[in-house]
């Protein structure tokens, strides 16, 4: 019990240091215009996102490196500590950087943040995750065993068809024996379609009127088609245990 508490207490300085870094970036932001002011809060709706994008676009005219560091830090922070709402930052990436830069950037940041989450769960969060998600852990443990002959394809399936929240998969993966190398490949490749479509939509952020505009039937069909092509080989593989 004491060992468990000690591990949990380790999360406090880690979270504090990461949060302090974001505060530092925001409150010591370079001077641009006296009317512009950054706030340390993540957008929770489309209107807030559009307002934030306008402010950051003004900053990027003279301080593009600062905007890149701030965006990257916020993105990894959300992924590392399993904070919902990555879709907003993907849209923001499209508005700020465009597809050409925003897409590879978000793929790298997604993989980095998910990796930090994986190792945090493995090293200090095991008991907490097991306490809150026992049924999910057992369910995915069984699924991993069933798909052990094609595990990488199963992991890609989970990412390309996000039926289960990605943050939950990040937390559970190290506890059910998923190797880190497979986890990393699945995150980086499996979330590419989702990242790309969100970032592509983000280029037209100012014209969006609803979050429903992102996940239209056309968009979902595109994601399904990409996933079917990527996962096609898995249907040809036989389970040696049967």
From TrEMBL:
State any GO CC term. membrane
Q: What is its main location?
A: membrane
| Compartments (UniProt record) | Membrane
Q: Keyword annotations for this protein?
A: Membrane, Signal, Transmembrane, Transmembrane helix
Keyword Transmembrane attached: yes
Q: Which Pfam families match?
A: VTT_dom (PF09335)
Q: Does the keyword Transmembrane helix apply?
A: yes
Every VTT domain range: 83-203
User: What InterPro entries does the record point to?
Assistant: TM41A/B, VTT_dom
Topology in the lipid bilayer: Multi-pass membrane protein
Looking at the UniProt entry, the stretches that span the membrane are: 9-29, 101-121, 176-194, 214-236
Record-linked PANTHER family: PTHR43220, TRANSMEMBRANE PROTEIN 41A (PTHR43220:SF21)
Instruction: Give the UniProt family note.
Output: Belongs to the TMEM41 family.
Task: Write the protein's name.
Answer: VTT domain-containing protein
Q: Which organism is it from?
A: Timema cristinae (Walking stick)
| The organism's taxonomic lineage, starting at the top | Eukaryota, Metazoa, Ecdysozoa, Arthropoda, Hexapoda
